[in-house]
Amino acid sequence: MVTNAIDTIIFDLGGVLLDWNPKYVFTDTYFDSPEKRDYFFNNICTSDWNEEQDAGRSIVDATQMLVTRFPDWEVPIRDYYGRWTEMLRGPIHETVEIFRELKDSGKYKTYALTNWQGDLFHVALVRYNFLHWFDGRVVSGDEKTRKPFHEFYHRLLDRYNIIPQNALFIDDNLRNIKAAEELGIISIHFHSPAQLRVELQKFALL
């Protein structure tokens, strides 16, 4: 495998460098039963609904829309963003250390390509200094588009003059990995920091 040309490393954030999970709020004891929690995530505050906010829709508008449609579920609907900071546990330290090693090597440009609601991303920027280490960031909420749409990847590639074949993309979502590979970007499907380190060593990047 030829890797000498790789000069750019692109990180997803949530699930790779930052631990974010709604189940930190909606624990096993939040609802009366597991069936109610499953219904809530499968039919009310769904991943598709959340991704509309990632693509720029106001969290206020999104919340009010659901409260109007599902008034009996008002409390958990409001808690989804009202308690959002409790869902953001903090850095995945082992991956942040890998990021530091790559950055300190001086060999690579590093970028973040993230699906994240714009205002909520500012909370993370205030909390976590390592988010300022990147040479550039492209945030879906600011761009009004998101992964896995090719347009979103092109915003990063075009803005920072990145050659796809010279870039490596890291994401925990296979859907997003496949979209990057369709554009000619070498990719690693993230499962754990240990697995990422092994994969990067295979590419002779660490």
Q: What would you note in describing this structure?
A:
With 206 residues, this protein is α/β, with parallel strands linked by helices. It folds into two domains: 8-20 and 89-202, HAD superfamily/HAD-like (Rossmann fold); 26-82, no CATH class. The protein is 48% helix and 15% strand. Strands 5-4-1-6-7 form a five-stranded parallel sheet. Strands 2-3 form a two-stranded antiparallel ribbon. The chain is globular and about 55 Å long. The mean pLDDT is 96.
Task: Please outline what is shown here.
The chain is of the alpha/beta class and 206 residues long. It is built from 11 helices and 7 strands.
- The averaged pLDDT comes out at 96
Q: What's the story with the biggest beta sheet?
A: 5 strands, parallel
Spatial order of the strands forming the largest sheet: 5-4-1-6-7
What is the number of helical segments per DSSP (H or I, 4+ residues)?
Answer: 11
What are the SSEs and their pairings?
Layout: E1 8-11, E2 18-20, H1 34-44, H2 47-54, H3 59-69, H4 74-82, H5 84-87, E3 88-91, H6 93-105, E4 109-114, H7 118-127, E5 136-139, H8 140-143, H9 150-159, E6 167-171, H10 174-182, E7 186-189, H11 193-202
Parallel strand pairs: 1-4, 1-6, 4-5, 6-7
Antiparallel strand pairs: 2-3
